[in-house]
Write a structure and sequence with these properties.
This protein is of the alpha/beta class and 567 residues long. It contains 19 helices and twelve strands. The two termini are 52 Å apart.
Length: 567
Amino acid sequence: MRFSPAGDPGTPDHRSATRYLVWLAGRHPLLFTGAIVLAVVWMVAQALMPAAVGRAVDAGLTHRDQDALLGWGLALLGLGVLQAGAGILRHRCAVHNWLGAAYRTVQVTVEAANRLGAALPRRVAAGEVVAIGTADIEHIGSAIDITARGTGAVVAIVTVAVILLDASVPLGLVVVLGVPLLMGVVALLIRPLHRQQQAYREQEGRLTARAGDIVSGLRVVRGVGGEPLLSARYRAQSQALRADGLRVARVESLLEAAQILLPGAFLVLVTWLGARFALRGEISAGQLVAFYGYTAFLVSPLRNLTEAADKLTRGHVAARRVVRLLRLAPELVDPARPVALPAGPGELVDVRSGLVLRPGRFTALAATAPEDAAAIADRLGRYVDGDVTLHGVPLGDMALATVRERILVADNYAHLFTGPLRAELDPHDAADRATVEAALVAASATDIVDALPDGLDSRVAERGREFSGGQRQRLRLARALVADPETLVLVEPTSAVDAHTEARIADRLGAARRGRTTLVCTTSPLVLSRADQVVFVEDGKVVAEGPHEELLAAEPRYAATVSREED
């Protein structure tokens, strides 16, 4: 799914939460409309049952007319069958609409995350995205689901009001005036609930993000003795969130009580008035029975209306979070007319630093400041805008998909995800087993796989937490080698491994990437000595180039940088 201007039926309208919910409802118009129609039939069939019972009492029992009794009995049976069939089909449509809205929200959220790319962590907290996929999709799905029942409830109440007005104007007026009054009382509870739910969800997202940060850095936190402090802070924030949750629950409990108390009180009033009118002879015995039936029936549509107000409020609050994410614009966008690139490898040039990567060569970049090397890698992969060309064409003139396909930047911030290790190393399932095994050999990671109970079929836990830092680094390197891009940029790929493992990786990396363009940002002498060409960068500029041994002898600044690494 691509995001285009609002109005495209395949594009979420993210100008407001209400428009987004309308867009979701319009994704499957037949099912959404069908659910509403079936809900109306389902509710109206139930609303007409008391009328059929009343007619059966008046025409069949009071006048002792067996034919009339049989006829109205069959009519009641038909209404029951119609109500049952419409209810079953309505429920099927409702479940489909619920799932469609919930999981379409997941899809647009993932698409928005992919669209933002590397800018996502800087623009929105991880807890916000997690909250959408765990809690908000349920509320959004429920808001789409309740629309059908809410509409059916309104039509049923109108039907009952018309019947009551025809039988007794005072009773009909009680219904016509009483129902809006009940909904007004419920609205008074909905407004503070709306505000408190929004504040609660925002605080919940912040706490979720903090929990993720703590878990991801738990080893470091324990190493510096900061676990008690962070634990105390998290506990305090958790208790504050709990207090906010109790305040929200207090309003929700009042709303739940109102859903029972107000319709119940209203129905007691209707029943009492109907009984008085029957005693005075203003209505017949059958009409009195029908009124009792209406009082029992009205509980359902009235509760559906209050439930609709509650769920639509929750869905609106949840949709606001989704809309906030959809409104975020990516830092990098495709040009209006992307330029096509020639086939095959070409020179990759970073004008700002003066770096020139010649095709098919294994180049190493050593920088006095690690952030300079990282900045160059970001420009080469077009994760930030910069004056970089490939085949003489600026990367900014190309489609981002083309850049990502031809240039891969692999750093130590990449994650391992839950799933089979084989799928983790080859997520596109494009490589054969031999290619994967060769990449593991080049990354010196075969021992990791051998130690797993099911080898490549073993499941990886979230973020690969069962592996050490060095093991995760080697698996990330293997994944980059399996991808086999035209140009591969590796940022400190051996910083977390021991010297013996680093030597094996350095010996094998050049052979694994033979004929492909490779840049390794590192200050490790073991890797630098195996490179075809070494580029030395100081203050963000290339100041020297050549083989590792020549630079050691001719460039004191380079020798000092490498010596620090050796020390």
